[in-house]
Prior knowledge:
By secondary structure, the protein is of the alpha/beta class. Helices cover 32% and strands 17% of the residues. The chain has 9 helices and 8 strands. The chain has an 8-stranded mixed sheet, with helices on both faces. Strand 7 (201-207), helix 9 and strand 8 (231-234) form a beta-alpha-beta unit. Helix 1 crosses helix 2 (49-61). The longest helix has 15 residues, at 15-29. The radius of gyration is 17 Å and the shape is globular. The two termini are 33 Å apart.
Amino acid sequence: MDRQTVQPRIGELDFHAREAINMLRGSIQMAGYQMKVFAFTSALAHEGKSSLAFRMACSLAALEGKRVVYVDCDIRNSRTKKRYRISRKTVGLSEYLCGDAEAEEIVYGTDNAQMDIVFSGKVAPNPSELCSNMRMDALLAGLKERYDYVIVDTPPVNMVVDAAIIAPKCDLTLVVVECGVTAQQELTHTIDVLERSEAKILGVVLNKVNSRNNRYSKYGRYGKYGKKYGYGHYGYKKYGSYGEGSE
């Protein structure tokens, strides 16, 4: 079977965003050689979690000799194909989890030979049940064997249960927080949900930071979470979103 490929159209980042991405990439690399599967989630929608996860996959794929796959697990409300202007017909995660496609059919190559993509697939009425089944475990295990890094994009924790189901299946989880928007109680609830689900949290990423006026640089309003998990600062001005946003 011929290898299926797509060509995401990705905009350029400014200097501050590129440097922040590189710093976050370094944190992922230092997590340990056995840590390969990283879930990205957030408390709420529109915090930039999906854009950040995709950019991180691209950044890791730029490392010499490293193969990376981005897995879109937002079966309910994915915007990946629209955001990166991918027009070709694809099958994805929902078709695989329903048994209508096999793992090799849902992995698409890109114009970067080191990076592949698994799309979310068709909207399904029961995403949480699908993500709970053994085929999800088998998929992640197989991808972990084939790739150096597996970046798993999950829905927001405080909106649907999916992330609490998927994150424990991953090696580590990063929680994306929008600077100046996400309330501390929302982050508190997100951390509590993930910890109760036994997900291992690598850190909290402060997103959409204006680097010229960053009053959160010393952990700010999020207090103990910055100290416990560590903050990475990503972005300069507004960047990325969950759902409707554009580059």
